[in-house]
Amino acid sequence: MLNVAGLTKTFASQKNRPAVRVLDDVSLVQRRGEFLAVMGPSGCGKSTLLNIIAGFDHADSGACLVRGSPVVDTGPDRGVVFQEYALFPWMTVERNLQFAMRAAGKWTRDAPATINAILQRIGLEAFRNAFPKHLSGGMRQRLAIGRILAIDSPMMLMDEPFGALDALTRGLLQADLVSLWQETGKTILFITHSVDEALFLAERVVVMTPRPGRIVLDLRIDLPRPRDITTPEFNRYKREIIDVINPSLQLPGSDR
Amino acid sequence: MVEAVQAGERVAPTSQPGAARRAATLPSAWRAAKAVLIRAALPVGLLVAWEAAVRVGWIQARFFPAPSSLVTEIWRDLLSGQLAIDSTASLARLSAGLGIGVALGVGLGMAMALSRTIDMVFSFPVQVLRSIPPITWIGFSILWFGLGNRPAIFLIVLGVVFPMLLNTYGGVKQVDLIYLRAARNLGARRCMLFKDVVLPAALPSVLTGLRVSVGLAWILMVVGELIAVPSGLGDTLMRAQDYGQTDRLLAYMLLIGFYGSISDLLVVGLSRYLLRWQRGIDG
């Protein structure tokens, strides 16, 4: 599905800041239907990686192929869910979905039925005529996800989508995202800085470190679902990731 | 109002329901009445004091006519139909000038914001032209268009076009990148991107420009009529001045102010409706 090879990106120096190499020879293969989390501390280039895959930004060198063809522009085959929601505030909930389907060329005779089904799926039927300003953060992000469902992107790019939500809402949306993935089989690339979030959600976690942005760990998560974030197995994975991100946090006596 | 009633209902089980509700709704009705009183206090008080001062003789009616004589003047013109004729003539001019000016300003502002070349071509000339007070064009407007509607409309267009242009330009330039990214990601291109994203995102700024423009349009309409147009509110006002009819003069001055404030209220109402999706605007 996704094939990234030798991706390199440097942000040119500016007045008060030297040039920063945000991506350094990043290579990554994601198979169809895989739920992949890219995690790392801020500044590690994970969002830049997503922006290049989404077609918002270009790499200096290297290749980025989606379903075999190089990414040249952004498009509805890679639906993006932004941390800031990026809903259109001048459109009602329903209009946001309609706009998405029209923009993606998915507006057919049964589009209204699709919209109804999606509104039900994301629990916003009662809010179909509300403007985004009337929605809570969790509802907004559900609508943003609904928008990607409406255009039926085979691949979903999620850029720290739950980062601005409170812990409780975040947990609900995480569980909901897992069942959505299980129902639809979408390929999901999920960017996060939370180890717990990555481990709760993904089949595979790729860990990046900053300056220069590099992949330092590629971990398959073999935990049964629904996942329990308090089990020793879960914490073993967590320890493994933390050790890589921040070796100074290594416990005395830990030999890993 | 609604909140107050709900608060009352929550209190209801512990106290007498009726009393609780009355206690909850009365203050809000009282608050509304109080707001009206506060708003009306200054105008009404001034009118009464002014009328009294003229009647008692503290102020000479010739220099500052009493409100009652202004009302008489307006009432007479209302009955004779003169007021309606003047008002519609002025309003037609205002609408024409405003329409042309808004269309030109929004059109050119959009074009400049969307195309770097157009921006570079027009930017400097626009900056120079907009710094010329529109009123100074009056000589040329009569020279070019003669007397009548057209010089007045020309003045209004000149006054309206630049605030509309600058506000449209600023509004389009400031559209948040994330909306453009999201829309393009969903597949929106040129026409859709413009109509459904750029335009509504720029609308708050455009409407701010419209509010400024309507105020300017009223001023320039009257200026145009004072000098170049043989009809309308400005013309009647000018003739009253020529004949020394101070009551008529003042009556029409206040009438223009009244019309101007009504048109501003209309623009504000329109903005609130069109921007009901914005934070801080309820609806």
Describe this structure in words.
The complex is a heterodimer of chains A (about 260) and B (about 280). By secondary structure, chain A is of the alpha/beta class. Chain A is built from seven helices and ten strands. Chain A has helices at about 45-55, 95-105, 110-120, 135-150, 165-185, 195-200, 230-245; strands at about 1-10, 20-30, 35-40, 60-65, 70, 80, 155-160, 185-190, 205-210, 215-220. In chain A, the strands form two sheets. A six-stranded mixed β-sheet of chain A has the order 6-7-8-3-9-10, sandwiched between helices. The longest helix of chain A has 18 residues, at about 165-185. The radius of gyration of chain A is 19 Å and the shape is globular. Chain A starts with a strand and ends in an 11-residue tail after the last helix. Chain B is flat. Chain B has eleven helices and no strands. Chain B is an all-alpha fold. The relative contact order of chain B is 0.10. The chains are: A alpha/beta (about 260), B mainly alpha (about 280). The interface of A and B includes residues 76, 87, 91 and 102 of A.
Q: Could you give a short description of this structure?
A:
Chain A is an alpha/beta fold.
